[in-house]
Amino acid sequence: MPHTSIAVAVAVGVIVGACSTSTTDDTSEADPGRLVLWNEESIGVLDSGEVDSIDTSGEISQVTAAGDGTLIWTRVGGDPPSVEAVVGSRFELATPTVPFFYEWNPTGTRVAFLGNSPSGSGLVFGLIDVEDEAVTTIESPAPFFFDWSPDGERLIAHVGGAALGIIEAETGAVQELPEASGAFPAPLWNERGIVVVTRVGPTISTPVMPVAYQAATSTIVLIDPDDDSRTPLAEVDGPVRLFPGAESLALVGGVAGDQRVEVIGWDGSAVATLGEGAIDLAQWSPDGTTLLWTERRADGRLTPKTWSGGDVAVHEAFQPSSIFATAYLPFWDQYDRTVSLWSPDSGAFAVATTDGVIVNVVGGESSTYPGWEMAIWTATPAEG
Q1: Could you give the CA distance from residue 119 to residue 137 in angstroms, rounded to a whole number?
Q2: Residue from 327, 279, 245 nearest 62 by CA
Q3: Is residue 240 within 8 Å of 214, Cβ to Cβ?
Q4: Cα–Cα distance, 166 to 151 (Å, whole number)
């Protein structure tokens, strides 16, 4: 996930339900959530068909939600670089870099982030302790892609390129795993265990992306971090990206322009083969019943498709917004862990287009909100 270094200051904001008038209805079967929209100048929250603005300043990027709907974002501007946060009340923290990626832990107590190294070489990995309002960083060797453990105390990450390791959030200690993996795809960690792609065949690298890509044959492995056991789930040829669901694991494999979606059970059994061509993203609905993916047309537009075990539904094609196309889609298997295109009740999904944010209701009509360049669905924060 290399990004061009930005020689400016930064602030990161976190905000809870105070920015929205909506509250959780305990009588509802599922939380419909709230849609958070943003562009480089502002952040808004869709509530009852109207967009309420959040008080911000500076250039906005990388809005990311915790499980309870709390938000964090990068605000470019100010000197020295700092982290601005609102968790009940707003606070600022100094940070040595401009974060370009965030991932909340499942308990909402810490945020991990990545940024370019101030030295101009490599990345900085940082941890924000929300309660203590403190930042710690690790620059060498910095993790690349990562995912939190279900208890929010550890992370699985690529460390120093192709190595895999478990990071202790409290101490920063790294337990290196024997598996070797390219820098792609992103590893994942859920209640079933750690899922990684182990490199079997040779790897390649490029001057633009000087990290190991997987090539030839690789194996998808489920690791039990408690007893250190390994369970092979599937063997794949060529590059592959992982997209976990409640009941199934979606694999986007193949070289660019000639890709497909393979759905397998968590026991490794084949379920379905879907999609073809250039596939930029895939994501399961929160209830795990519906898979969303896009297929890129010759004119660059993306056609969203959904599958829930039967026929494939085809939705209206769109031209992705500049932010969506350049900052998110190239690294989507990592952002799939942090950016929900689906509403919490699995009733709608949103895509960011050059015409604004389009919300597609499953089995219904779509709505467009012009002027916004990116959007995510979040849980509805508790009142107060």
Answers
A1: 14
A2: 327
A3: yes
A4: 13
> 232, exposed or middle or buried, with CB in 10 Å at 0-12, 13-18, 19+?
exposed
Strands (E), 66-105: 71-76, 82-87, 89-94, 99-104
What are 128's strand-pairing partners? 111, 135
Tens digit of pLDDT per residue, the chain (384 long)?
433 333 233 455 665 443 333 333 443 478 889 999 999 999 999 977 789 998 887 788 889 999 998 888 887 766 655 555 544 556 677 777 888 899 999 999 999 998 888 777 778 888 999 888 888 887 667 777 899 999 999 999 988 767 888 999 988 888 889 887 754 678 999 999 999 988 755 544 444 444 444 456 788 999 999 999 999 999 888 788 999 999 999 999 887 788 999 999 999 999 999 998 999 999 999 999 999 999 999 999 999 999 999 999 999 999 999 999 999 999 999 999 999 999 999 999 999 999 999 999 998 889 999 999 999 999 988 764
Closest CA to 70 of 39, 99, 40, 45: 45
Query: Hunting for tokens 């497909």 — which residue is that?
Result: 260
Q: Dig out the tokens for 236 from the structure.
A: 């794949």
| 376 three-class SS | strand
**What pTM does this model have?**
0.87
Short-list 84, 42, 77, 79, CA closest to 58? 77
**CA separation, residue 34 to residues 14, 64, 176, 178, 280 (Å):** 16, 13, 39, 42, 25
Q: Kindly report the length of the chain.
A: 384
Amino acid 284 reads W
- Residues 106 and 87: their CA atoms lie apart, in Å, by 16
Contact by Cβ (8 Å): 358, 366 = yes
Do 328 and 335 meet the contact criterion of CB atoms below 8 Å apart?
Answer: yes
CB 71 within 8 A of CB 36: yes
Evaluate whether 213 touches 203 at the Cβ level (below 8 Å).
yes
CB atoms within 10 A of CB 193: 22
**Token duo for residue 263:** 């759905």
